[in-house]
Amino acid sequence: MPQTVEVRFKGTRKDFFLWADDDATPSLRDAVLVEAERGKDLGRISAVGEVALKKCGTACAGCDLGQAPPEDSLKKVLRRASPSEVRTADELRRSEEDVRRKVIERVKHHTLGMKVSDAEWQWDRGKLTVYFTAEQRVDFRALVRDLASLFRTRIDLRQIGVRDEAARLNGVGRCGREYCCSTWLTALSPVSLSLAKDQRLALNPAQISGGCGRLLCCLKYEHDFYVAARKRFPKEGKILETGAGQEKVVAVDIFRERVFLRNPEGASRIIPLAQLREETAALAPRPAATPAAPADNPPAPLPARPAAAGSEATDSSPPRPRRRSRRRRGRGRGGPPPSGSGG
Fold first, then answer.
1. Per-residue pLDDT tens for 40-55?
2. What is the CATH number of domain 93-160?
3. Where are the domains of the chain?
4. pLDDT tens-digit profile of 87-101?
5. Cβ contacts of residue 80 below 8 Å, gap of 6+?
6. Per the count of CB atoms within 10 A, which of 45, 129, 130, 318 is most buried?
């Protein structure tokens, strides 16, 4: 049965293909030849089966999460790559740095404001992709014609952002590990300065910026924890009534569960959060209790109405008042005249 596989190429570039060979089972890290635009390309399998389907549902346009994509929308895996084909791909990778230098020389010749980051050959040398960054829009039509005549192949110039550039080139971050965007982080979500403010970090660009010059992606990893932990503490700057009088919350330590307080005279102290809650609860005004009705003196029952003679009264409710019927006079209202009146 055909199944979906994820194939990775140089850098962070990846795509999804259809494995149609029922006799062979795909395995991770297998080198395979796949269909490419106007040719063939070589990559390595990074996900197979259900894992690839889930990734395809979040990365591909038109695929539902957890559902198999249409077979006609995916390109096919041609076959496993032979050792000689793998060696050809390795030689192309080693030559790409010289290609990048030549592209940089041509960019300087055309005086274009662009920084060439990387170059990537397709396995059959049918296409050369050049990645670059630029502050503004660049008209590189003349450069494309120059490079096409130089390398005798189809040229694809792609402008990327600085975060995508760091992901492709890889590196070591402040933590001593490889960049998250180059190893396991699949999507580059936006990171704002409010994340650093919520975590009470020093707003020093040298300390909260990564190798790409933008805010660290890891600022988002623990943001939910900081927001949830600070809800248990009083806000900084709030005046509280404690056992020592009125004190102002100067700072909180969510890891050691401590609160920094200062009174109007300037004396400060550090107490645990549990002690602060006990002091504020002891000084909090208690609601007044409503008095309960005494149980010894129950309300007296209403006296029963005496029953009429010769009748058995079973209803003790008071009698209804009788309505007096008024006699209407017809004079003046079109009615007949009263009897006995002379004419």
1. 999 999 988 888 888 8
2. 3.30.300.20
3. 3-81, 93-160, 167-225, 239-283
4. 999 999 999 999 999
5. 24, 30, 31, 32, 33
6. 130
